[in-house]
Automatic annotation (TrEMBL):
Transmembrane segments: none annotated. Residues 19-56 form the Glyoxalase/fosfomycin resistance/dioxygenase domain. The lineage of its organism: Eukaryota, Viridiplantae, Streptophyta, Embryophyta, Tracheophyta. SUPFAM superfamilies: Glyoxalase/Bleomycin resistance protein/Dihydroxybiphenyl dioxygenase. This is Glyoxalase/fosfomycin resistance/dioxygenase domain-containing protein.
Amino acid sequence: MGILLEQNSSDSALPLLSLNHVSYLCKSVEESSKFYQEVLGFVLIRRPSSLKFEGAWLFNYGIGIHLL
């Protein structure tokens, strides 16, 4: 899977100051969570109990990762 992005000039760049959180669809939430924790140093945090589907929430470096 891949997305081809055109190179844009800096005039059209999105002026991001920070990134709050991102969500990723994973083949295996368990394996992906293990990678983010053991390799990248993210910490597993509690998900709302109202979510009735498989997933994991992790946090570090000021970024939240939602694995689905």
